[in-house]
Amino acid sequence: MSRRIITTQFQGAGNASVDTFLDRVVKYIPADIIAAWTSITGLISSAANVPGQRILWIVFAVGLIVTPLWILKLTAKPDQAPAKTQAIVGTGAFAVWVFALGGPFANLHFYRSLYGSLILIFYTLIVALIEPQE
Question: Taking the complete model, does pTM exceed 0.85, yes or no?
Answer without folding.
Answer: yes
